[in-house]
Amino acid sequence: MTALFFLSQLRYDSGISQHLDALFDFWKIQDDGFPQNSKILLKPNMLSPHPPEASVTTHPLLVQLIASVLRDFGNSVYIADSPAGINNKSMSRLWKITGMEDAARASGAELININSRGLVERKGISRNFFFTDFLDEVDYVVNLPKLKTHGLTLITGAMKNVFGLIPGIQKGEFHVRFPNPADFSANMVEIYAAVRPHFTIMDGISILEGNGPSSGGKVRYAGYLFAGTDGVAVDAVAARSLGIDPLSVDMIRFAREKQIGETDLKNISISGGPLTHIQAEIPAPHVFSRLPEFSYSLLKKLIWSRPKASPEQCTHCGICIRNCPVKAMSPDGSGLPQIDYETCIHCFCCAEVCPDDAIYQEYSWLVKLLS
Q1: What is the mean pLDDT of residues 8-27?
Q2: Distance CA 109, CA 359 (A)
Q3: Whole-number pLDDT of residue 220
Q4: Which residues contact 203 (CB under 8 A, 6 or more apart)?
Q5: Residue 19: which pLDDT band, with cuts at 50, 70 and 90?
Q6: Judging by beta carbons within 10 Å of its beta carbon (0-12, 13-18, 19+), is residue 90 exposed, middle or buried?
């Protein structure tokens, strides 16, 4: 039986700190190797430079509190992520806007720019990957994902958060190699298997639902916190809490097929409080994937979404153009990104890296009609 810790009705300004003792008691029971006098890497979701209230990134207060308690056990704590589209010059801006700079200062943790470091090779299930070599300098990895729905992978959580330990342009290359959402998700399971963080604490207090994981998503209070040694089980329970069948999420289904973590809710025990549910809004195209296979096969050519730039919000910074993995974007005369949809692979990396939420999802008439 896999054990998870779950809390509901939490808020950032109150409630988290009073439950820290219970969370850490659970953690120490579940992991005989609970870190003391060690070097710990905290891996939050720092997708793009959005403030905490946008619910795009892991909330800095949660990061700060976890880091502070871990330091009380004599640990050295480091905070790191490698978001797409963030170079060495813009990393400090990202840390400031997301609140991670303040979280590190308040807790005594150290922010690490893993984009400026070397690489280390690790084996997944059937292939190898190159991660930041900082993984070899730490003794323990704590995964701190943000719970969101996702236009490509349906949800983003514990498994997908590990993607940020692959620095630089490699992330874009994976989108090119695996443009199909199912293949991309299968590759995410491989990447997760190559790291397998020691412990996961998922921020589901304020979530982003709908057409996430950044621009297009809607902020919603859920009040959830999930934790456990098995990130796959965390994802499965988190999906269920949103009213989503865990096995409808490709990453969770592939993890089950590869026997990476526990996905059967009957084999997961929950302490801290009973699991509660909301019915989250999911990305529009995923609604149609729930149709019977015959109906979906007939309609799928009419079911699509694609990125488009808003002239009103675009600041012509060019970040989306530079970070398109297939070079499908180019500026028009005014600098507004134009997209070649014959080349576009609909990975929505442009929306993820846009600091101004200027890339939105345009839908086919059928999606708009029935959503």
Answers
A1: 91
A2: 34
A3: 96
A4: 45, 58, 59, 62, 144, 145, 146, 147, 225
A5: very high
A6: middle
Amino acid at 73: F
225 in Cβ contact with 205 (< 8 Å) = yes
Percent of the chain with pLDDT over 70: 92
CB of 175 closer than 8 Å to CB of 94: no
Instruction: Dig out the tokens for 265 from the structure.
Output: 């809710």
pLDDT of the residue at 292: 54
The amino acid sitting at 2 is T
Let me know if 368 is exposed, middle or buried by CB neighbors in 10 A (0-12, 13-18, 19+). Answer: exposed
CA distances from 325 to 84, 127, 141, 307, 317 (A): 10, 21, 29, 14, 17
Residue 213 has pLDDT above 90, yes or no: no
Angle between helix axes 60-72 and 100-107 (nearest 10 degrees) is 20
Rounded CA separation 321/19 (Å)? 44
* Residues 54, 133: Cα–Cα separation, whole Å: 31
Mark residue 42 as left, alpha or beta (left: phi above 0; alpha: psi -120 to 50; beta: remaining).
Answer: beta
